Please model this.
Amino acid sequence: MKVNLGYLGLLLGLSGCVLGPDYHEPTPAIPANWQAEQGTDLQRIAPEDLKKWWQKFADPQLDNLMTQALQNNFDLKIALTRVEQSRSERSASHAELFPSLSLSASPQRNVNPFPGLAPGLRYNQFQLGFDAVWEIDLFGRLQRRAEAADANLDVAAEQYSQALVVLTADLARHYIEYRSLQNQLRIIRSNLAAQQHTLALTEKLFKEGIATRTDLSRLRAQTQTIAAQIPDLEAGIAGRLSQIEILLGKAPGELAGSLQQTAAIPSAPGREILSSPADILRQRPDLRVAERQLAAATAMQGAAMAEMYPKISLSAFLGMRNTDLDTLFKSAAFSYTTGANLVQPLLNFGRIRAGIDMAKAQHSEAYLGYEKAVLEALQETETAMTRYLQEEIRRQTLVVSVADLQETVHLSERRYQQGVAALLEVLEAQRELYAGQIQLSQSEAATATYLIAVYKALGGAGGHEEAPKHQAAITSTAAADPAVYR
Model:
């Protein structure tokens, strides 16, 4: 079998003609600094510190829950299967660039197609051998499709990282809310016990003719009002616990024993929460998803344009052919064929042009989606930082306020026992203290929750070690061939 090497070399040379725009990574305009950091003493956080940001809360129980969630969360497992799907699609796309070889065997019963020469002649034909087919990618249709598959694999990998960001933030937030409700319940029960003690004292004074019925009725009503808040808080605690169990992939009730004991609301030092606006382009997986989607859409433009040009394929057969099965494996039965096929679209009623227009529109959509994602990321980060800083100021104010209210209650109770103050003064002081303690507990939870939102906005946990462990086999062509948007 002779092959024209010059002709084959010409085809291979032409296969370097790749249609469509080459991709270049976009460089959106972003500010140099955050507005929220003006006038503060906040320091910039190192990217490696974002991998396990929840450890800054110094809560062993939270650390343990995170470890379980990273191992058992179903959203992470689903995201990982999507990475595997994309990897398979990428392998299939790259395989189209190479020849395919298959083993074929076929028995045929034929009738003479020329009746005038030998009318009614029938004969058998047996064939066994190898078929090879190779499409010469002259205009880059297959190469562009492979580039799009590379980008789509990166998209799936970054979506896995984004699932890590969402999981860690949601778990920490639910845990903070769970601890906050526990502490609010503790405050209410403590306040209820104090009210019941005062009620018992007032009932005794009423029997002695010292306290009035009005004082007794008012105190009873206030006691019942406090007691009525307990069922709602208990229901909220059960709901938060259920949410945590779902995130950990556990059945209802499995965590009840380990989290039943009330613990303090975890807090983290927020002096190092800032990262530069440029850093979030590298740290946030959702922005990397949008950028990789843009790369895939750019590649698909070239694949659509290549549909307008000829498709050339080479084929070959090497094996045995004979009309007699008994002599099929004789040397005389050896056979080979080679061929080439060219297909040039002529009339398709605008189908190819419509495909090109659609690919361009999808590219525009991906580019606009990326620009929008960048703006939303900047806005989300600014908002989270501002809320955290302002809530931290409010929390510090409430700490001082609660301390003053505790002193006020202590003094008013002494005055009441000495007969200097009325019961109404004591009740009002207790009510204000109770309200202040609840506000402080809620503010502590809000401060921690807003700090979690900051870590999430900065792409925290997106580079966690768990992600590379699952993605070790994922390779990115785009990393080796940087993309540029034109």
